[in-house]
Amino acid sequence: MGVARLRQWWADLLASFWLRPAVMTVAAIALAQVLVRAEGWDELPDGLDDWIYAGGAAGARDVLGVLASATIGVAGTTFSITVAALTLASSQMGPRLLRNFTRDPGNQYALGALVATFAYSLVALRSVHDAEEGAFVPQLAVSVGLLLGFACIGVLIWFLHHVAASISVDRVVALVHHDMTAALELACRDTPKEPPEAVAEPQNTAPLTAPGSGYLRVLDDSSLADWAAEHDAVLHLEVRPGGFVFPGSVVGHVTPTRLQEAAQAEIERVMVLGQARSVEQDLEYAVRQLVEIALRALSPGINDPFTAIGVLDRLGASLAGLAGRNLPSGRLRREDRLRLVRPATDYGGLADAMFHMLRQAGETQPSVMIRLLEVLGAVAAVESDPGRNAVLARHAALARDTALRGTEDAAARAAILERHARFGAR
């Protein structure tokens, strides 16, 4: 299993809502078994006797029974609250953001604490015996159960605060921006600057077809380049992470043609297809999740330009963070020979994904368009690459023209022209 595929598998596993609660439940069951078996092994340290349960079997059954019923009831309530929060977030900020809520460790740990305490109480309860059965009361296990019960009260209070905070649009924007920043950091890590060069059209090649259908979630291009170097081959791919792959479609070519069968097997090994896009390698999808929040905020039904302005600030911060850093070119070399060529998101494509749809949606919102021009100017102030500054200037001109077309207010038009003039003076 390649590194990229392993990273995607681990990210999907952590995003699942069941993993952490399941691990906590198993740990609670094991703890209950250990405490029941440890009953009476050693004398407790001085001072702890007053904190240990000292009642009989009937009292222990009552305590553990109440603890089990209460925690499983509260667990159902927390699940209902989570579903309600997901529904609200989906309607206001977009269904593609649901993954950010389900993978939230706080929600998983809160549910896990309640379910684990329920499982602990059941396991401890089964060990309680009356005198007729050979009296046995796991006093240490009952005491720890009480402690877990009090801890669950704290978890419930924290969970209510956490859910209320997690559906705040500012917090959601910050979380999505964090994901986008992490994706950009991963893409730019140790990426060398390569001079622009034309890649010749492949000659005498054999086609490589898709192993299935779906969105390309992971492409282990490093392994592909290593394979090509080992077999003295050159691979030209026509897909990139985030693109939809149709069954049987041509996804690339290999040179020489005699390696078609082996290259096809390698393609099937390193390509991971799925029903949804993923932010791990798909930079544009990470951007579009943030843009979607702003687009919904600018819709007539919501009309919240302040959220759109907040999204623009985050997008500008991400672009400014790319100053002096290199995006992957899609060309991988081994021993100074080109071995793999594939499409890649460049600076212009990233800026287009950030600003095109927002500019179109904000045409009649002068405050949004003014802020867009200000953000573009702030990014240009820290960017020294002439090619990237040309991209920013193009978007500034488009924003100016769109904003002037969308408003007749004299003060707004003057502010728009002033911001664009300030951009050009940099």
Automatic annotation (TrEMBL):
Q: Can you name this protein?
A: DUF2254 domain-containing protein
Pfam families from the entry? DUF2254
TM annotation in the entry: 12-36, 63-88, 109-128, 140-161
InterPro entries noted in UniProt:
DUF2254_membrane
> Which sequence ranges form a coiled-coil region, renumbered to this chain?
none
UniProt keyword Ribosomal protein present: no
Record key words, sorted: Membrane, Transmembrane, Transmembrane helix
